[in-house]
Design goal:
The protein is of the alpha+beta class. It has 12 helices and 33 strands.
């Protein structure tokens, strides 16, 4: 009974997230385990990756495992295909299992993902593997460009199944929406599987401040382990949904909405194969103006037949700022796993283009005093100190109250995510991104009609190797205390993509509660914001913390227009920015292995970025559109 209840709970979570397929087990998991954990590749080399499948001494073991799998599950109607496994190479033993399953059950499909062909005799067609007796092609983390090549080949004859296409380890995966869009756009795509459902870790109790703790590989004194590679699921070990599951859920929502040709009209596409949308769900909506909800309503049950499109009209109120409408899809009736009223997903649609607001003319007098290493800029209510050696503001004070706890910094580093660690982190460290600091070469200060203008030529450079960025920073301090910061950047073309670029402020701890206009309420990145929407949200450094089992970069918000703090402090962008408010700096997050090792640094750590590179998708990495490839950057923001 306990196992049945647990499985029902798992299915409820999965179906509540619009998941349609669970991969229960596979026939050659034992062979994959031996290859990956018992030294086959390390001892014999990659050319013998498929040693176990070519050695007939193991034939009986292969067939025994697949036979037991078949007889265990043959009467379960939910089984749609058999799989002899993944990642074990190809040879006579694998082929014998494929032939066995086709003979025993000719009505179901048979799957096998080879990964490496090292002499097993499989003919290649392009770069996609063909396996006799397997009715479709299968692959892991294939790039969209590789799949384009496959589908463009006029000789391709089999559909494609992504047996793993999303790597849900730590903060990620990115580009979930783009991958689902690709699946829906290609009739020959069968779909795929996210790796994987849940994190596997050992309950280690709670930290002193009540945060959940888990242990992973190496924490029990074992010599051989895979560190935290077991923490790669869309739900935590206690089945708490992660941001990855929210992203996945909304990427495969049953309806997709878009703006119609006429004002106030919207189209809905039903992506279900058999069900009329009206039989499954009802559509509510909310309208926001500069993030504030100004209208709500319901379309009820809208009839949209499978794979068809309908257009509806919504009476829109006057929009004075930046307007959005969000359609929310709610389950209409109870089912075995999902109750009526459950949110199945949403679409948010922009109603008008963002127009940067014209700033009012500044009032008040401003003066400056230049010293050898600093410039003191003062107005009626404020006093700012500018550091000429590093090209940053050393301190900001208003009405005698210090807002900053230490000097501002230029920032390109982030605490590596699990997806960063395997590929990007070594490249970033080779470029010195983790130890970069600013050095000013020339600073000029003058009174201008706008106020006091400071212009600095500087570089962002690591120790002992060439500079990363060459910059020209212009700061205009107006009489009302507003700082207009314009930063022109040229990146050394030999350097790798940047983790991020922006500024970092170290504010007083009591300024941690913020309001922002942008993507929320969950963390979001350029390639991970399908599950978020634009609104006016309140949060804090504490609430922004995302409790990944291994601490890493987290809590970012994408597409932010404005960030507000207590005491009237505001940061806003000329176009848009990405922001992060945290109790921890990047070094603390990077070097902590567990939650209990995190110690707040005593500041409200604020990052306002031009861009942050996407979190990526495991071995696929970050899609080019979501990484900072630019050789030149212009970034303007305002601080008041």
């Amino acid at each position: 009974m306990g196992r049945t209840t647990a499985f029902t709970f798992e299915v409820s979570l999965a179906e509540g997230a619009n998941a349609a397929r669970l991969r229960v087990t596979r026939g050659n998991a034992g062979a994959e385990d031996v290859v990956e954990t018992q030294g086959v590749v390390r001892i014999y080399g990659p050319k013998d990756f498929d040693l176990l499948t070519r050695d007939e001494r193991f034939l009986a073991a292969w067939l025994d495992r697949n036979s037991r799998l078949y007889h265990r599950d043959k009467n379960h109607t939910c089984v749609i295909m058999w799989s002899i496994g993944n990642e074990s190479g190809y040879g006579t033993n694998a082929q014998a299992c494929i032939d066995y399953l086709n003979k025993m059950d000719p009505h179901r499909l048979v799957h096998y993902e080879v990964v490496i062909n090292s002499g097993g005799g499989i003919p290649r067609e392009g770069r996609m593997l063909y396996i006799p007796g397997v009715q479709f092609r299968s692959g892991m983390y294939n790039t969209l460009e590789l799949l384009d090549e496959y589908f463009a080949d006029p000789n391709y004859e089999q559909p494609f199944f992504w047996c793993e296409f999303l790597h849900a380890m730590g903060n990620g995966p990115g580009s979930v929406k783009e991958h689902f869009d690709y699946i829906y756009a290609n009739d020959s795509m069968m779909g795929g599987c996210a790796w994987e459902w849940c994190d596997h870790a050992i309950d280690a109790g709670f930290t002193a401040d009540g945060r959940k703790m888990y242990h992973y590989g190496g924490d029990s004194g074992e010599v051989f382990h895979d560190s935290n590679f077991c923490c790669d699921g869309m739900v935590m070990p206690d089945r708490t949904p992660s941001n990855a599951l929210r992203e996945y859920k909304n990427a495969c929502r049953p309806l997709y909405a878009a703006k119609g040709e006429q004002d106030g009209t919207f189209t809905f596409v039903n992506r279900l194969d058999f069900t009329n949308a009206a039989d499954l769900l009802e559509i509510d909506y909310e309208i926001r103006d500069d993030g504030v909800v100004i209208g709500k309503g319901s379309l009820g049950a809208v009839s949209v037949k499978p794979h068809e499109t309908v257009t509806v009209t919504v009476a829109l109120p006057e929009i004075k700022g930046h307007g959005f409408i969000r359609f929310i899809y709610r389950q209409k009736v109870d089912t075995f796993a999902v109750k009526a009223g459950h949110e199945l997903g949403f679409d948010q649609i922009e109603l008008n283009a963002w127009q940067p607001k014209q700033l009012p003319a500044a009032k008040g007098e401003v003066r400056f005093e230049e010293k050898d290493n600093s410039i003191v800029i003062e107005g009626q209510r404020f006093r700012y100190v500018y550091d000429k050696l590093h090209g940053v503001f050393e301190s900001l004070s208003v009405d005698g109250n210090a807002l900053t706890a230490k000097p501002r910094e230029y920032n390109i580093w982030r605490a590596p995510t699990d997806n960063d660690a395997h590929k990007l982190q070594p490249r970033w460290e080779a470029c010195g991104y983790d130890r970069a600091f600013s050095r000013a070469y020339k600073t000029e200060c003058s009174e201008t009609p706008e106020g006091v203008t400071v212009v600095t030529e500087l570089a962002l450079t690591p120790l002992w190797i060439q500079r990363i960025l060459t910059m020209k920073a212009t700061f205009i301090v107006s009489g009302d205390g507003r700082i207009t910061a314009s930063i022109d950047v040229r990146k050394d073309p030999i350097m790798d993509i940047l983790p991020r670029f922006g500024i970092r402020l170290f504010l007083r701890k009591d300024l941690e509660k913020v309001t922002y206009l942008g993507m929320g309420p969950y963390e979001s990145y350029s390639d991970l914001h399908c599950g978020s929407y634009v609104g006016l949200f309140e949060t804090s450094a504490e609430d922004s913390y995302v409790d990944y089992i291994r601490p890493q970069e987290h809590g970012n918000h994408y597409g932010v227009k404005k960030l507000s703090f207590p005491l009237g402090l505001e940061v806003w962008a000329e176009d848009k920015m990405e922001i992060n408010v945290s109790s921890f700096d990047a070094d603390t997050l990077e070097f902590a292995k567990h939650t209990d090792e995190l110690k707040p640094n005593g500041f409200t750590n604020v990052r306002a970025d031009y861009r942050v590179s996407g979190v990526g998708n495991g071995y696929v990495g970050v899609l080019r559109a979501d990484a900072i490839w630019e050789k030149e950057i212009e970034f303007t923001l305002y601080i008041k």
